[in-house]
Amino acid sequence: MNVPSPDNNEDNGEDTFLDESDIINEYDIDEEELPDADEEGGSDGEEEFDGTDDSIHIFTGHTGELYVAACSPTEATLVATGGGDDKGFLWKIGQGDWAFELQGHQDSVSSLSFSADGQLVASGSLDGVIKIWDIAKGDLKCTLEGPDGGIEWLRWHPKGHVILAGSEDSSVWMWNADRASYLNVFTGHGGSVTCGDVTPDGKTICSGSDDATMRIWNPRTAEAIHIVRGLTCLTINSDSTLVLTGSSDGSVHVVNISTGKVVSSLSAHTDSVECAAFEASSRRDSWRAATGGMDKKLIIWDQHSSPRCICDHEEGVACLLWLAGSRYIATGCLDGKIRIWDSLSGDCAKILSGHSDAIQSIAVSSSGEFLVSVSIDGTARAFEIGDFRSS
Predict the structure, then answer these.
(1) CA 172/CA 211 separation, integer angstroms
(2) Which of 10, 223, 256, 258 has the fewest C-beta atoms under 10 angstroms from its C-beta?
(3) How far apart are CA 21 and CA 188, in angstroms?
(4) In degrees rounded to 5, what are phi and psi of residue 375?
(5) Does an H or E element contain 300, and which?
(6) What sign has the CA pseudo-torsion 221, 215, 185, 205?
(7) Max Cα–Cα distance, the chain, nearest Å
């Protein structure tokens, strides 16, 4: 291509016109292919992130999608995150120059959990290995092996350094982390064990599997005390009497842990229930709970079994939690936004923006001042939520 010299482009003050002899070729244009006047060039038709960012801290140490976040129960600014880059990190809100990498995993870091006393953090990976880290020393304490499949979830016993893990190989494992010793393995599920927890009194384990069953276990004998059909997620109430389960068909059930009997069936969701949580003060005879699903709804329930509130979202609800000691619930959504809801009125009190893709996990600091979220967009973000703490 010949580029005219600047001299040829001087403005001589005369108007320039094109006549038919200047036309080289003609092309037919379909008007439907033309962009609107207010549409920027280069758009691929997908909804774009609007650029709003309400976060006060962004952690960008990961190099892939993020899957899990956990907050220390004793240090208000300490956060753990893990993702598809095979890495876990400890970092601190407001201290952008401090981070500690949880090294050594050979596959995605899929689960993280702090011990109740805040001394240890466990990282679990799809490589089937759990690593226990001493936070004060900044050292790897021990590596726990046994499962033949990836780790789906981790939970600490509420009264000591005993760690449980659910695996893709259909089993649940339990170790003593102080001695790096195996304690028990719980077998019987027919599919990946995708969720689980220990009751607050430490006397019972509940696990849920892709085989659409929940099993209630004796931790000492590894015996399955009860088997309940159908679930995708579960949560246990504070007095260790009830477990709430959500299912892929949209059904929600409240199960008596002692008897294994369904005491209430809750119907309102129209698609898979992905997350569930009891309000912190829930007891057997007086409880409130929240469930979120791919039907783009957060539903708040109470012991009367009918929905107290139905809160509509723009996209599916991937995760939720009650803000401790308050009436508010936070949801993390596939549209990349966090919404805070008043559980009494069902009103959306605040929308927190910053992520450009689906949120995978949310956690709240021990002080209740910060909410941390991780996303497929590869970032972890911290937001101030002090206004929603209990008064």
Answers:
(1) 14
(2) 10
(3) 84
(4) -140, 165
(5) strand 297-302
(6) negative
(7) 97
Q: For 293-304, what is each residue's pLDDT tens digit?
A: 999 999 999 888
Supply the pTM of this predicted model. Answer: 0.85
Whole-number Å distance between alpha carbons of 183 and 189: 19
User: Closest by alpha carbon to 163, among 123, 200, 217, 211?
Assistant: 123
Quickly tell me which residue has 């689980």 as its tokens: 196
The CA angle 182-184-186, to the nearest 5 degrees, is 140
**The residue to which tokens 């120059």 are assigned:** 97
- Could you say which DSSP state residue 252 is in? E
Output Rg (C-alpha) for the chain, integer angstroms.
Answer: 26
Which helix (H) or strand (E) element contains residue 329?
strand 328-333
Instruction: Enter the DSSP assignment of 268.
Output: -
Q: How far apart are CA 276 and CA 242, in angstroms?
A: 13
Q: 297 and 274 in contact (C-beta within 8 Å)?
A: no
pLDDT tens digits, residue range 54-94?
999 999 999 999 999 999 999 999 999 999 999 999 999 99
**Separation of alpha carbons 100 and 88, rounded Å:** 9
Q: Which residue reads 């549409």 in tokens?
A: 39
H or E, element range at 131: strand 130-134
Q: Which of 120, 121, 77 is nearest to 95 (CA)?
A: 77
Confidence grade of residue 100 (pLDDT, cut at 50, 70, 90) = very high
Query: Sign (positive/negative) of CA torsion 230, 232, 235, 240?
Result: positive
Of 299, 261, 272, 303, the residue nearest 286 (C-alpha): 303
Enter the tokens of residue 95. Answer: 């201290």
